Amino acid sequence: MKVVVIGNGMVGQKFCEKLLSKGIPDLQLTVFGEETLAAYDRVHLSSYFAGKTVEDLTLQPVKWYEENGIDLRLGDPVQEVDRLKKNVTSFEGLSIAYDYLVFATGSAAFVPPIPGVDKHGVFVYRTIEDLNMIWRHAATAKTAVVIGGGLLGLEAAKACLDLGIKDTHVIEFAPRLMPRQIDEAGSEILIQKLKELDITTHTGKNTAAILGNETIKGMIFTDGTILSTDMLVISAGIKPRDELARACGLTVGPRGGIVVNDHMITNDEHIFAIGECALHNSMIYGLVAPGYEMADVVATQLAGAAKQFPGFDMSTKLKLIGIDVASFGDPFISGDEARTIVFRDNHRGIYKRINFSNDGKELLGGVLVGDAEAYNMLLQICKNKMALPPDPMDLIIKAKEGSADAGAGVVALPDDALICSCEGVTKSDICNAVTEQGCETVDAIKKCTKAATGCGGCAPMVKDIMVHTMKQQGKLVRNVLCEHFGYSRQELYDLVKLRDLHSFDEVLDTLGEGDGCETCRPAISSILASLWNELIVKKESATSQDTNDRFLANIQKGGTYSVVPRIPGGEITPDKLLVIAQVAKKYNLYTKITGGQRIDMFGAHLNDLPSIWEELIEAGFESGHAYGKSLRTVKSCVGSTWCRFGLHDSVSYAIRIEERYRGLRSPHKLKSAVSGCIRECAEAQSKDFGIIATEKGWNLYVCGNGGSKPQHALLLATDLDSETCIQYIDRFLMFYIKTADPLTRTATWLNKMDGGIDYLRNVVVHDSLGIGAELEREMQLLVDAYQCEWKNVVETPELRSQFTHFINAPKEKDPTVQFEAMRDQKKAATW
Amino acid sequence: MSNQNWFHVCSVQDMPHNGGVCVKYGEHQIALYYFTHRNEWYASQNLCPHKQQMALSRGMLGSQQGEPKVACPFHKKTFSLKDGHCLNDEACSSIKVYDVRVKGGEVYIDVKDMDQQAMVHAHRQETVSPNI
């Protein structure tokens, strides 16, 4: 069977996947794509500006098409369809015959006929190429305007934010934002939330013309007002790409779109249309899930089975600019046909509305803005016509949305409830994956059923169903460390302390089974270090440390190590700088200033580490623990000693904090900073614990995080004196060390904590658990037990002797280590 | 077994417990492991095939469903110490494993395959430029 697909967008690609899965013999599949890139994720387009690459967004690499025998022709759009001869001719002149032709041409951005839209600096928001052009232009832009307050428009506004444009405006012709999804009150909350992000919304506004000579300078509206801007992104809707279909005589709708029946067949029985170019029942579906369903309808029929497209629910949940927005069923129904309950919290920016039948039995639809946690459950109740609670208000206002509730919720779902609408996975598919395929992790279920691999919105529900099904089978669902330990880290911490265990083998033989692994060894080693603070490189302990801890240095490409001496608060004397320079020259090390205000020396041979440290320690340095899951640096600004704005001496306080917690082993690395005033030059709010000077003392922030998923620290307590601030940090850190999962930073730990920052504040500040004094005592023990690990190694011959590459040639270094020159220093040879 | 060639490495008391060391045999680097918890000895090539790093001797020992394994410290690829196959990445090549013998407190590795075998790190140049 010869199948030709015109268009390689998300739906076109999904169609290929679906068709391949049917196993049709003698299938010859040819795909023409207009863009030069293989199909990519257009739904998450704005993440391109937030750091995702084209590869990240690409659905399947070109290799995938090759491996599956698909003839993919990118950058070569079809120019002509000859329906009589049943063949297509491409731009490059290729002529291919088909038995069945599938239009998946998608849509283009709709550009309203405003005078001046052709000016430089006016863009649409549709393809990666559009994004690249916006990117280049945005470098010099200070102001941006987006026309269109719908889904895509708000995505485009987020893209402008991500590009660093501070002053962004959204223009919407309708009297409210997202007019298809949410109501007036929901829109008001959304506008308020956008305002907090410096996005100004103008509703009920109609653009009259675009101002400027060659380049856009501003816009004038029909009400006579003017708005200056450096760039404009038009995202006012979509226009089906039906020009080719029109040219070959297929029926198109009055306002565009290739007319199809319930089988997705056009007026030519050999030609289908799917996705945003298809007009089904007078409707263009601008969402990806219905497009995927259409792809399946066509693939199923080509495989010889029957399937129809029943129309699709337009329920949707999105995270727009970090704000949850969802609507389901009929969000707007009101008046005599339905009753409505509305919950509105202007303070937190939350709006929830549910519409239900007059008899109170059936949920008809609703809107959620600001908090859409209940969306999955509400959608299921609505779609499956499930019974409502006696007081329907309970659906949107709960004291706390605990997992017990969610668990109870999934029980009531019928087996055929569609959980993942992107991939068409039902509740029973997920249950079967657990009971018959033995899937016991969300990842396993994703692999087995493809659920939650599309937009990912159903992942929490998939997990709830999985956990519930496992419980039903009598399987214990526990957060255990690995196959060798049937306990969580928190349980192990308590057990190791209770049984007074001091080595990995003791812990393994008392509490575990088997021989350990690369997951439990470092986790247990970390617990032992947090509990006893004994030397981690003793013979019985060293090999259960991650390699960085085993050799007290960070392993780098090529197998050499880097060396980071502690420079508390980032303060260092010229003499000590000289020592670092001498050591680096002597051992031929690459030097770099780190983000934590220290100096990192790279390219050290394992054999040289003890001698390097001997010289550093001699000059008064100590280990910086850059290799450990432990306190790294306490960064500081220069503070009141030099700075004309400084309120307190942030450097002295940072040094005090760093010296107090140096060497403290924890579930993950810890970073801190002290800023001398509200200008926050030390960036304390991005640290695990950050301290900012106020007129009256210090403000303490906790659980911030840079890295791959940045998160601001939250204010724990204000205007503290120096002693109380340390007391709270003692409690906070010990509580974290005792209760967090392995390799969990404080931000993630807090995110998972029931009650969040309020609960944490109760424990740390108000001592609600009555453990404050105990936590402080435990911390003091660790502080008192501190020793410089490197000093210990340097002074102990049998520890020193571990730092050799060859056991039978201890003086020889690894001969395979290789460097290349770069900017007057060296770098590791590329692998 | 015929024509085994036992190469003396070190004494048992020189070895770390539950961990590995690197052994120099001519141009070859061999990782030798003393899995104290199982009272077992293993040896393999030192080169991790994933990113060509001389690192397996510095890896962590463990077991998976009873199968002894070593985890590369670079990216945590794990390899069976029994037959050398990669346990957590089907696409990753296997490592060579060698027999180990302990006699009279001394440790030996069977190097009979070593001389026929292409140099494990043949893709690399031998020398280190001293002044860059």
TrEMBL record, chain A:
Domain FAD/NAD(P)-binding: 1-282
Ranges where the BFD-like [2Fe-2S]-binding domain occurs: 418-466, 482-529
Domain Nitrite/sulphite reductase 4Fe-4S: 628-764
Keywords assigned by UniProt, alphabetized: 2Fe-2S, 4Fe-4S, FAD, Flavoprotein, Heme, Iron, Iron-sulfur, Metal-binding, Nitrate assimilation, Oxidoreductase
Domain NADH-rubredoxin oxidoreductase C-terminal: 315-385
Residue ranges annotated for the Nitrite/Sulfite reductase ferredoxin-like domain, each copy included: 556-618
CDD domains the UniProt entry points to: NirB_Fer2_BFD-like_1, NirB_Fer2_BFD-like_2
Pfam family, one: Fer2_BFD
UniProt entry tagged with the keyword Iron: yes
Keyword 4Fe-4S attributed: yes
Names of required cofactors: [2Fe-2S] cluster; FAD; [4Fe-4S] cluster; siroheme
Pathway linked to the protein: Nitrogen metabolism; nitrate reduction (assimilation)
Highest taxon of the lineage: Bacteria
Family: Belongs to the nitrite and sulfite reductase 4Fe-4S domain family.
Record's protein name: Nitrite reductase large subunit NirB
Taxonomic placement: Bacteria, Pseudomonadati, Bacteroidota, Chitinophagia, Chitinophagales
Gene: nirB
Automatic annotation (TrEMBL), chain B:
Database matches in Pfam families: Rieske_2
The keyword Iron-sulfur appears for this protein: yes
Domain of life: Bacteria
Keyword field: 2Fe-2S, Heme, Iron, Iron-sulfur, Metal-binding, Nitrate assimilation, Oxidoreductase
Rieske domain span: 7-109
InterPro entries in the record: NasD-like, Rieske-like_NirD, Rieske_2Fe-2S, Rieske_2Fe-2S_sf
Database matches in NCBIfam families: nirD_assim_sml
Record protein name field: Nitrite reductase small subunit NirD
Gene it is expressed from: nirD
